[in-house]
Design brief:
Layout: H1 3-16, E1 20-21, H2 24-28, E2 45-48, H3 52-65, E3 69-72, E4 89-92, E5 99-103, E6 108-111, H4 117-126, E7 129-130, H5 143-149, H6 156-159, E8 166-172, E9 178-182, H7 194-198, E10 207-214, E11 216-217, E12 222-229, H8 232-245, E13 250-255, H9 256-266, E14 276-283, H10 287-300, E15 305-309, H11 312-323, H12 325-330, E16 334-337, E17 340-341, H13 347-360, E18 364-370, E19 375-382, H14 387-406, H15 422-429, H16 431-444
Parallel strand pairs: 2-4, 3-4
Antiparallel strand pairs: 1-2, 5-6, 6-10, 7-11, 8-9, 8-10, 12-14, 12-15, 13-14, 13-18, 16-19, 17-19, 18-19
Helix pairs in contact: 1-3, 8-10, 13-14, 15-16
């Protein structure tokens, strides 16, 4: 360890005491997220922050010594964005986890970054309110991590991603200064929108230590449709038709590979011979009518089986099948998970491309995702112990990314750039635009210590 590293660790320990961890075995548990094939280095220390002062001290010391800092929540990320960098300090916010306030009249909640998404949703529900953003990992992912990646979820098409629900942010800059962005008002156009600049920046601009998020009144009724199709093409035709006749809160898609994996894991009795499955939810005053119109659209598109329910327990059981899609595929082998999104009307072309790529490289690719907004998660399943299979998996990943871009899509709909997708960013945003992003980072973080090489 260099003199600089030794000095920074000694000063951290002197200032912060036992929240600084240097045991290699303990640090290993903080060194990577759920993108298991993304590279992870060796940190020099882990700081398990509990307060804003802990974050200020950590960044002040790190900035003085020019030591990289990687901020980490629960480690549920899927792009390697919180993986350790050699010689870095891991700044963990998992214990910085209080719900500070829920204001029923203002319909806002103020939370620390380590609060679990599901815990906030439950606390809001007890007060008759609804925290909308619903990542599939909401039971275990943190609000800080959701803000860092601008996380999505099933109901984005109707209600938007995490950033659409943020009112204010308190954050710490790389040099230890505290900033506040946003406002409590519903309308605020004063100056540049620093709040939305921080959301989705993957810890590369500042460390978020507090957020005030907006809550909604929960819809009184909701209806769920499950439709089974013999072929993917029929399911996609239904998705396009549904958009013309209804305004669903979510339309979730699973292909045959995913259906089989989910049924083997859950024993729910899903039709393993089906080519595709759609789960559709409609809420609000027109929810029942929208659900019926959606069901009719599915039948017209060739669905062999369509079922409608307004029972909350039955709806939740159906949604559980979709939420466990990734864990179910992970039971089949190593996985390389994509997170691409295309304009909804280009879904047929993207799904055709995924099928062609799977055949070309002789790979299993299970595809699931949020069809209502065109966000798919094609998941390559392979044997990571086989170098040749691993190489084919990465070539398939490249081909999917390139095809997505050619269709006017985005390289990430909700998981972020991290380590996994940095090489595609300039192709998507442009060289001049990426240079602007880098220059913005220099303003926030002149020494480049915050999650260097990620997001931007």
């Amino acid at each position: 360890m260099s003199v600089t590293m030794t000095g920074s660790v000694a000063e951290l320990t002197a200032n912060l005491g036992d929240i600084v961890i240097t045991d290699p075995q303990v640090m290993a548990g903080y060194s990577r997220d759920q993108s298991l094939l993304s590279p992870a280095g060796r940190p020099i220390a882990v700081v398990r922050a509990r307060t804003t002062d802990d974050v200020v001290s950590t960044l002040t010391i790190a900035n003085r010594y020019a030591v990289p800092v990687v901020t980490r929540g629960a480690g549920t990320g899927l792009a390697g964005g919180s993986n350790a960098i050699d010689g870095c300090i891991i700044l963990s916010t998992e214990r910085f986890d209080r719900i500070l306030d829920i204001d029923v009249r203002a319909r806002t909640a103020t939370v620390e970054p380590g609060v679990l998404n599901g815990d906030l949703a439950a606390a809001a529900d007890r007060r008759g309110l609804w925290y909308v953003p619903d990542p599939g990992s909401r039971a275990i992912c943190t609000i800080g991590g959701n803000l860092a990646t601008n996380a999505g979820g099933a109901c984005c098409a109707k209600y938007g991603v995490t950033g659409n629900h943020v009112a204010r942010i308190k954050a710490v800059l790389a040099d230890g200064r505290i900033i506040h962005t946003g406002a409590d008002t519903l309308k605020n156009v004063a100056g540049l929108n620093l709040t939305q600049l921080l959301v989705g920046s993957e810890g590369a601009l500042a460390v978020i230590v507090e957020a005030t998020v907006r809550l909604r009144t929960k819809p009184r009724t909701s209806s769920t449709v499950v439709a089974v199709f013999s072929a993917v093409a029929h399911a996609v035709e239904a998705v396009l038709s549904i958009r013309e006749v209804a305004d669903p809160s979510l339309v979730e898609f699973m292909d045959r590979t995913t259906i089989v994996a989910v049924d083997e894991m859950t024993r729910m009795g899903l039709d393993a011979t089906a080519g595709a499955l759609l789960l559709i939810q409609c809420d609000g005053t027109d929810g029942r009518e929208d659900a019926q119109r959606s069901a009719d659209a599915c039948r017209a598109a060739g669905a062999g089986e369509v079922h409608i329910t307004s029972d909350p327990a039955e709806s939740e059981a159906l949604m559980h099948a979709r939420r466990v899609a990734l864990p179910a595929l992970e039971r089949c082998g190593s996985t390389l998970l994509d997170d691409l999104a295309v304009p909804v009307h280009r879904l047929p072309e993207m799904l055709d491309a995924i099928e062609w790529i799977a055949d070309r490289y002789e790979l299993v690719i299970g595809t699931f995702g949020h069809a209502a907004d065109g966000n798919l998660h094609p998941t390559v399943v392979f044997d990571a112990a086989d170098p040749e299979a691993t190489a084919r998996a990465y070539r398939a990943f490249d081909d999917m990314m390139n095809r997505c871009l050619s269709l006017g899509g985005t390289i990430t709909g909700e998981h972020g750039i991290g380590d996994l997708k940095g090489r595609y960013l300039e192709s998507m945003v442009g060289s001049a635009e990426r240079e602007l992003m880098r220059r913005i980072k220099e303003v926030f973080d002149p020494k480049g210590i915050l999650n260097p090489g990620r997001a931007i």
